[in-house]
């Protein structure tokens, strides 16, 4: 049976975001854009991982609750952030009363959950009227954009060698799903992160520390070796090497009275 997304992140929790500050980098960009917290601004971060958003949101003054469905992630976050309220929880069933939070965040999670619409309904329920849902999904590349590395082209090319259910993550209609749950979609913003890479091998190691690991593990071994060889050959001579990625930040507000 295919390994579930939660099991993958549980397995990767010991190395997640260790090689490059990718998720923590995007998490800071999201946290910076949140509104000023009110006197008792309560923020729920779902699929919190190692606290990419939860930690800087707390630094900004929010009263943060971080949740994740992978026990390993929860254990690591508790260990690294002893003062943070961290709970093991699947985002499909949020164990909080209605109208509990001013802000809910979800960094690069919504495209991974089994039922994004169900999660959006739960988020809507636990937000106070006027509350904000801010979440990121992997970005669409703006027109004319070229990847600073050739890896995305390889991911596209090798997808045909994946078994059914291979890899992870599905796009969904974010705006339609928000509107259906009763949100007023406010804004879509593309966020960009450039991270210098010491060498091509660093990029390969980075792929082992998050969701792309499942894609690579799901390839037949000879194709995986070929992917690695092509990546290293392609990038080996290029200097400087930069990992440039985009995510889309969606912000939406609860409209119920
Ligand atoms: C790509 S990571 C993002 C983590 C963090 N938000 C960040 O930006 O680094 C996805 C996280 O979502 C969690 N996750 C996946 N499915 C989930 C679900 N149904 N409910 C709660 N967490 C989930 C995983 O365990 C993992 O920690």
TrEMBL record:
In its UniProt record, which GO terms are filed under biological process? Answer: methylation
Question: What region holds the Methyltransferase type domain?
Answer: 44-135
UniProt GO molecular function? methyltransferase activity
- What CDD domains does this protein map onto? AdoMet_MTases
Which InterPro entries is this protein grouped with? Methyltransf_11 (IPR013216), Methyltransf_Superfamily (IPR050508), SAM-dependent_MTases_sf (IPR029063)
> What keywords are assigned to this protein?
Methyltransferase, Transferase
For the keyword Methyltransferase, the answer is: yes
Keyword hit for Methyltransferase: yes
Name this protein carries in UniProt = Methyltransferase domain-containing protein
Q: Can you name the source organism?
A: Paractinoplanes pyxinae
């Amino acid at each position: 049976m295919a390994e579930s997304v939660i099991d993958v992140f549980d397995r990767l929790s010991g190395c997640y975001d260790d090689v490059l500050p990718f998720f923590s980098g995007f998490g800071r960009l999201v946290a910076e854009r949140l509104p000023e917290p009110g006197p008792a601004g309560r923020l729920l971060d779902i699929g919190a991982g190692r606290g990419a958003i939860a930690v800087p949101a707390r630094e900004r003054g929010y009263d943060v609750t971080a949740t994740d469905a992978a026990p390993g992630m929860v254990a690591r976050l508790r260990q690294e952030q002893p003062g943070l309220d961290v709970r093991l929880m699947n985002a499909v069933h949020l164990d909080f009363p209605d109208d509990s939070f001013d802000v809910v965040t979800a960094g690069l999670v919504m495209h991974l959950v089994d039922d994004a619409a169900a999660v959006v309904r739960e988020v809507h329920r636990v937000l106070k009227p006027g509350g904000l849902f801010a979440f990121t999904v992997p970005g669409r590349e703006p027109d004319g954009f070229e990847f600073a590395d050739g890896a995305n082209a390889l991911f596209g090319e090798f997808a045909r060698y994946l078994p059914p259910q291979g890899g992870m993550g599905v796009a969904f209609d974010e705006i339609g799903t928000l509107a259906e749950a009763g949100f007023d979609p406010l804004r879509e913003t593309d966020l960009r992160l450039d991270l210098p890479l010491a060498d091509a091998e660093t990029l390969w190691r980075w792929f082992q520390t998050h969701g792309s690991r499942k894609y690579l593990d799901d390839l037949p071994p000879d194709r995986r070796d070929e992917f690695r060889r092509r990546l290293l050959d392609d990038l080996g001579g290029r200097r400087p090497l930069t990992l440039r990625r985009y995510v889309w930040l969606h912000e939406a507000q609860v409209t119920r009275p």
